[in-house]
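Standup notes, structure subgroup. Blocker cleared on the F0G input:
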Amino acid sequence: MKFATDRPGTWQVCIACGHELTELDPHPRCPACGGLLEVQHRPPEMTSAELLQRFTERRGQRPGALSSGVWRFQEVVLPSARDVISHPEGNTPLLHREVIDRWTGADHLLLKHEGHNPTGSFKDRGMTVGVTQARRIGARAVACASTGNTSASLAAYAAQAGLPTLVLVPAEQVAIGKLAQTLAYGARTLLVRGDFDDCLRLVEDASRSLGVYLLNSINPFRIEGQKTIVLELLQQLAWEPPDWIVLPAGNLGNTAAFGKALLEAYRWGLIPRLPRLAAVQAAGAAPFARSFAEDFENRYAVRAETVATAIRIGDPASFERAVHAIRETNGVVLAVTDEEILEAKAVVDGSGVGCEPASAASVAGVRDLVRRGLMAPDQHAVAVLTGHILKDPGLLLRYHREMEPPPAGANRPIEIAPELGAVEAVLAEMR
Ligand code: F0G
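Run returned:
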């Protein structure tokens, strides 16, 4: 397939009113109607086979930005970018564990572990592009609201770029690993007495009136980077798409990115068919699942509550983009309970893989899809683990050391005197 058009290489378009902006326009939303923006690229000027060949050649190339699992796909991410801010990121593994198959009921579930990114979550893929763009437009400072991972990632990439950084997080509700990272990387950190939805409203106001570049996932350049989770997993599968891709969903930026990646890959001839997307929310923070159940006729905002603090979001910002992603991939939206999330997490952790609570929602979602007959056990599915096990050590210690009665799989530490006999007694019990 050959492509040709007279458009500029990359531009931005409002998905609500169609208003177009140039590639370097810094508005986080459409200046005409306030709608969400989307980055569009002229299709790559080479055949799909040539494009795939280029992606293949760069795999394993080191060092340099093209070894990044994001910039390897530069032609479909941000073709005109130079001097990118890259750690590098991506190149995350696809894992398989039989014990997780048994728990979910799927025959061969693959896990794309985004916790292997530099700051321990998939956010790094969006941030390398977002912070590169911040530098290209000459931003003097950057900001975000966050449940913790976005702020840790922004703090790291902005430190690398030398950009002052402001982050707003809900006081008392950020997992300790994420807060610690954000502070250590040097972001100015505001603990807002409110929830994530309050933080996002406030940072949007601040970015508008104070001229700080906004790097939440409403920023369409973040989405371009996060598309590479899908591109990289497709490449790992030799461009043979799975039947399902399952991911946890909060603010819905990632759901939007997955849909955009799949539709572009299909349109540009990189894959022969579209996988179905399954977006999984926590039952206590499931406004998108509720809309889906009504065929997206209504949009809801809820007061969110869940043990998975990463996705404790009641009014997701990328709603319209995500509706498009689900509709166009014949996708589904599910809600799983906190109990199911913790049970899935215990299985993932116990398999030696490990992930943070929100990530386990995708594994719980796979079990739900199989139980409901939506996914046949022999269908090919990839579940995305979005964050590292050490993001939320507070919850882990409560689960294993403190909860009464001990939950399934709780691994109580045993305090002993410094004597061989005490070790021997424990060992005898283990046999
Ligand atoms: N999983 C993890 C580990 C996350 O940190 C997030 C979002 C999601 C899933 C959901 O992705 O919002 O694109 O639907 N974390 C954001 C943050 C909100 O601030 O770190 P989403």
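Discussed briefly. The two ends are 62 Å apart (CA to CA).
Next: hand off to the docking folks.
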